[in-house]
């Protein structure tokens, strides 16, 4: 049977309509795919999918322990842990190192005297006895006879890197709770006379009375105990070079023998 030929115009019109329908179908299909993908992602991120249905962690408004602090913030955080020490005629500094109020300081501050008086940050005054000493490392611990109403131990430990910012808090020349800042200048240093070694060198200003105080990193962690300065002029004046016993070494010290440091101790 012969078929009647179709009008060319009609064929063209039908093709155009079919093309538009195909394009609409393709576009509509793409939109549908996108919506499905968005829905799946929302489901997973909202905690409805994944192993065990555990939600993905979101951002936290609480600062992380790795966050660096300004110097005022460091002082506010660590200041309550710092203690002023009067040992006979010697002035020094200490830091609360444990919940029971044990204080870490420099051995030469309390060497040769039983008359040790402490002043805590809240103004509480009490006597103390030397609980342990390591003259070779120039560190000692003190046991207070009385504790303040609120004991605030420092957070100890932290990595040390050359160039990293540091803050020292102490009692230089009797100026209690003085703060200075600088950087780690070097590691594994030895004092001029070789009496102390393995020290942290830093350039935050310290002077007589600063010994035993904490050296803090930018997170407020105690990374060292201040013990000495370089003294090229022989006048016990700060020359831009100071030393601290690394906190790991200080904590590892117990009863020690041998001579105490005879360098420019502060």
Quickly describe the structure:
The protein has 266 residues and is of the alpha+beta class.
Detailed description of the structure:
The protein is built from 4 helices and 12 strands; from the N terminus they run H-H-E-E-E-H-E-E-E-E-E-E-E-E-E-H. 21% of the residues lie in helices and 28% in strands. The longest helix is centred in the first third of the chain and has 38 residues, at 8-45. The chain folds into 2 domains: 10-53; 71-252, Beta Barrel (Thrombin, subunit H). With 266 residues, the protein is α+β, with helices and mostly antiparallel strands. The N and C termini lie far apart (119 Å).
Strand content: 25-35%
Helix content: 10-25%
Unreliable segments of 5+ consecutive residues: 1-65, 253-263
What's the β-strand tally? 12
CATH structural architecture of the largest domain:
Beta Barrel
**CA-to-CA gap between the ends?**
119 Å
CA radius of gyration: 34 Å
Strand order of the largest sheet: 1-2-3-6-5-4
Number of domains: 2
Number of helical runs? 4
Q: Which sheet architecture does the biggest sheet show?
A: 6 strands, antiparallel, barrel
Shape by Cα distribution:
globular
Classification by helices and strands: alpha+beta
Mean pLDDT over all positions: 78
Order of helices and strands: HHEEEHEEEEEEEEEH
Annotated CATH topology of the largest domain: Thrombin, subunit H
CATH class division of the largest domain: Mainly Beta
């Amino acid at each position: 049977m012969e078929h009647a030929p179709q009008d060319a115009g009609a064929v063209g019109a039908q093709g155009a309509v079919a093309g538009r329908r195909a394009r609409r179908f393709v576009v509509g299909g793409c939109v549908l795919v996108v919506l499905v993908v968005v829905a799946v992602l929302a489901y997973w991120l909202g905690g409805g999918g994944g192993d065990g249905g555990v939600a993905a962690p979101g951002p936290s408004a609480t600062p992380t322990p790795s966050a660096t602090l300004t110097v005022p913030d460091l002082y506010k955080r660590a200041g309550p842990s710092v203690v002023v020490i009067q040992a006979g005629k010697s002035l020094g500094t200490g830091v609360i190192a444990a919940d029971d109020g044990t204080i870490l300081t420099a051995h030469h501050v309390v060497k040769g005297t039983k008359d040790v008086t402490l002043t805590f940050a809240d103004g509480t005054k009490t006597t103390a006895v030397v609980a342990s000493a390591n003259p070779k490392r120039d560190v000692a611990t003190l046991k207070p006879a009385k504790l303040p109403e609120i004991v605030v131990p420092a957070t100890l430990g932290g990595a040390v890197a050359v160039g990293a910012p540091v803050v020292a808090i102490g009692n230089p020349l009797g100026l209690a709770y003085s703060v200075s800042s600088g950087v780690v200048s070097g590691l594994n240093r030895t004092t001029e006379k070789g009496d102390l070694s393995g020290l942290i060198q830093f350039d935050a200003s310290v002077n007589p009375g600063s010994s035993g105080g904490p050296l803090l990193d930018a997170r407020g962690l105690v990374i060292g105990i201040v013990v000495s300065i370089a003294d090229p002029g022989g006048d016990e004046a700060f020359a831009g070079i100071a030393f601290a016993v690394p906190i790991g070494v200080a904590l590892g010290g117990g009863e020690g023998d041998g001579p105490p440091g005879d360098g420019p101790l502060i």
